[in-house]
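Problem 12. The chain below contains 235 residues. Write out its predicted structure in token notation.
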Amino acid sequence: MNTPLISFQGADIQNGESIVIYGMNMEINQGDFVYIVGKVGTGKTSIIRTMIAENRLHGGEGNVCGYDLRTLRDREIPFLRRKVGVVFQDFQLLMDRSVHDNLEFVLRATGWKDTSSIEKRITDVLEDVGMSTKSHKMPHQLSGGEQQRIAIARSILNSPAVIIADEPTGNLDNETADGILNLLLRINRENGTAIVMVTHNRGIFEKYPGRVFVCKDEACTEHIDNEVIDLALTI
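Solution.
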């Protein structure tokens, strides 16, 4: 039996000084496409911050890509993050450098040294996300959808086992959002990369089915009942 890429047992998830989710159980395996849904303030983003060790695990057990979150040392965090690609709602590209230089910065920061290997990897990921002709562009010269494609390219540079996407379509129109979802689905299906997506958009996981974890009442549990999911998202 394969070991889960991400596993939590009885985990208490913290935001600042407050526990926002108690006793969470979650397992995510290779090839999974997982949504974490819920109203604003229910702990969705705190969960993914815990996954990438931005928030410390407060209680219970947690393991991400072979790293025990209870005993993780600060010097190990960069190695954990090489195995996890992260895509943000606001793209978080470096605005003072080109697309190419954004990607090169990440590769060199994660230990790549050989220039020819770096150039080949940049070419490959830009081709993967349909942005081969944009290498020389500055972020402000790109549309929102194009910037998000570059952010996804950045997230797959080190061939991560998991991509964590925090509201990746939140700033995009519906047509552009569809393109981003289809790109993530293709990466999921072709590479077996697990996708964990935070969203409050009911339409997304109706159109692109996956496993659904619902954050509500200081808990996060998996549901297949559409009525439960609807209630959790009702404002």
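Discussion. The helical segments are 44-51, 77-82, 99-109, 115-128, 144-155, 174-191, 202-207, 226-233. Students who got a different answer should revisit the alignment rule from Section 12.3.
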